[in-house]
Amino acid sequence: METYENVSADSIQLARQHLPLAQQIARRLYRRYRWVGMDDLHSYAYLGLSLAARAFDASRGVPFVRYACTKAMYLAIDEMRRDGVLRRADANRRPQDATGMEIDLPDPAARRDHEMLEAREFCTELLRQLGEQDRQLLSMIYVDKMTYKEISRVFRITESAVCLRHKSLLQKLRRKTTVSRLAA
Question: What is the DSSP string of 7-39?
Fold first, then answer.
């Protein structure tokens, strides 16, 4: 059981400033888990928001709202699962077996969503370890969908140099991923 005694005043203030975000999270949770009461969802969303505020690291350069939108929701889902509240059932009724007893089905989507969140955080950490120009290059290729020719004009290098840097970056990221997996 986790204690909440060592919560900083900054994280409490951060959570209080973003209380409307908890209401949005509760509404998002309600769309997925209609069988859970809205009051309970609000409580779990507030708890998720406060835990996200506690875990937030401003030095990563990600705004709190962007971080908390996802992190608080998954923390709320984790807390609901810990309390045994979260069960997957069809829209308004719980499934029953042949004897008429209700069957609780664990939520398979929550596990997948949690794994995706962990993967996203892992990728963020890998990218944070790269230099600014390397991150900019990857952003131009994968986010802005720029060609090597367009990127070569921005960096004032040849297209082949852009291609080689891109290939080198991918190899570097693969090595870091392999090392991280071996360490885990």
Answer: --HHHHHHHHHTHHHHHHHHHHHHHH-TTS-HH
Q: Determine the pLDDT at residue 183.
A: 63
Residue type, 164: L
* Residue the block writes with tokens 């990127």: 151
Q: Has residue 12 been placed in a domain?
A: yes
Residues 13, 86, single domain; the answer is yes
Query: Which pTM value belongs to this model?
Result: 0.42
Residue-number span of the structural domain to which 147 is assigned: 129-184
- Is residue 163 domain-resident? yes
| Eight-class DSSP state of 152 | H
Question: Residue 57: which residues within 8 A CB-CB, separation 6 or more?
Answer: none
Neighbour tally for 76: CB within 10 Å: 27
